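Exam revision sheet. Question 4 asks you to relate a sequence to its structure. Input first:
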Amino acid sequence: MTSNTFKNIRNFIMLALAQVLVFSQIHLFGYATAYIYLIFLIKLPRHTSINSMLLWGFTFGIVVDIFGNTPGINAAAATAMCFARKPILAMFTHKGLPDDFIPNANNLKWGSYLIYSGLCILIFYCILFILELFTVGNIIPLLICIGSSTLFTMLFVIVTEGFSHNKAKA
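Answer key, structure tokens:
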């Protein structure tokens, strides 16, 4: 196993624990919940195979589902987001990039990175809340949940990226 594999496993364990023990317990105003493990999935290298992406997404989702007592909705939403990630990333990159290209604010610039990560997170929450509520009859609460959770998670994306951006400059 390479050092990247060990680093990914370490990050997986840390984010899964943080998600299950802390962030899944926070429901801002009864609507917004941050799923910080999405940061890991968004920042996987560009060359990561689709099978690996789907496996990482499903594994993170099923861990959160098991400890959150939800019937597979996180696994479904995270897997779908991972499936859509590569085409979304292709909108902001070109083909001549190195294989180890990691999508972040340094490489994509802040605007592109925020749009890329925002689209991935929005897809995740659309699928998650439609599966959770299992209706589009009450469209206003559904849109409030999707919008507020997307913005809440994006806040954590900006904060973590800001710290890693400053660390990269030092």
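Marking note for examiners. The chain is about 70% helix and 0% strand.
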